[in-house]
Amino acid sequence: MKTTKKIFAAFLAVMMIALMIPFTASAAAPNGPYTATYLCAPNASTEKDKVGDYDFSFFKIADLDKETGKYDVISTLSSNTALVNAVNAAASTDRSKSIISACDAIYKTSPESFGSAAATLSFTSTDTTGKNVTLNDAGIYYIYCTKKPAKVTRVTNSLVALPYYSNNSWVTSRDESKVNLAAKVSTSPVTVTKTADKTNVGDNDKTVTYTLTASTAGSLENKLTTYAITDTMDNALTLNESSVEVKLNTTTLTKGTDYTIVKDYPYQDENKANKTATFAIVFTSTKLNSADFYDSGTADAAKTVTVTYTADLNANAASKFAQALPNTDGLYYGNNSGMNYEPGPTVNVFTYGVNVVKVDGNTNSPLSGAEFTVYTEDKETKELQELTVDGKKVIATTGTDGKANFVLEDSTTAFCFDADLTYYVKETAAPAGYNINDSVFTVNIDTTKGVTQVNGAAIPNYKPVVPETGGVGTMMFTIGGAALIACAGVLFLIVRKKKSAK
Questions:
Q1: What is the C-alpha to C-alpha distance for residues 439 and 117, in angstroms, rounded to an integer?
Q2: Domain end (from 187, 206, 222)
Q3: Residue 204 or residue 394, greater confidence
Q4: How far apart (Å, rounded) are the C-alpha atoms in residues 267 and 278?
Q5: How many structural domains are present in the chain?
């Protein structure tokens, strides 16, 4: 994952000239102070990952015998055989490499062995010219980068010997600014990604699972003091804190020991603007000081931090139908050289509302008092079953304009429809004087609209074919019945009269 710029042997060779000092000289070496000039100026456009503040510390590792020109390793390091053998070897480029290698090994395990730095040369991101360092004592100095930006994984260390013997005379200063120390810097690109397990969400399935990934930064040579994966989500989403899982590569980390969850986490974005994240996964100092957080060897292979968690849709979503509910992540990290922010992508989820319009089938005039209920299909029986949320049905009751949105029963809480699901709507109560429309309406969400109309058109209601009691249809039956009774009475009188005549 990480890229390491090759450091050519020429850079080392420049530093080695100072070590090619004869063991006998025509005159004693002069007293100090001694000076050297260095440059550390990354290109702001092509080497932006290198831009930042640097400190190069000069640690004395060997004394110079000014009479003989011989070097002796200082007492606090004299027990290190590899360093002593390297310093006493014949002057060459390989000799210099051996000295640097020995010093690198010492600094990695016991940096305190070098004691305090004899001098420190500091560079800021605005320094574009060389700077001088002053050394009071003659000898060989190991130059270690003790402060570097968080994206830096490694800086190739170097040496300087002052004074040095050249052209039959001693030289008390040297100009190394022709070798830009930025060329010795290796950096690591930091990547941040984010995904969601769905695009559409609703009250029928309120949970969204997010996965955040970020590469580690820094190195064993350049440990971080802050590493926080930030997450900023829409207020229609609520973090389920118990669902958070954090892994370093494939190893599951422990909350409290390796990381903490900090809500309302303050940070500065890439433009140094103050921001507040909904929450952040913040690694502990213990974890950032441990070797297993960084690459395990010298290959500069970054590790990957993976954060998974769920968020639940909340009541704020009811006012945001068809609006994006964004969720953005990023990585806020740094060390004593400064802080960095690497923005990640924004992932959106959506939710939708549904309304109904009720009209008279003959006049298209709006009708109030119609009730509609939402159903889903049972996966096993394929039968429709009432949809409930916390034991409440999802219904819509039309008002005087004939319109209604779906809410939870006995409340005004809007129901959020999931566009990935199929719903069914039936009329369960008709307006006064009207029949119930017995159609079953399939609801497929139109994701281009904020509120989707059931069936795509107004739902008609018709008056009964046989009117209610007191209507004209009932009167017709009453008149007909009376007529039949009258006819029966007349027929009875005629038959009786004939019998009497006989």
A1: 87
A2: 187
A3: 394
A4: 11
A5: 3
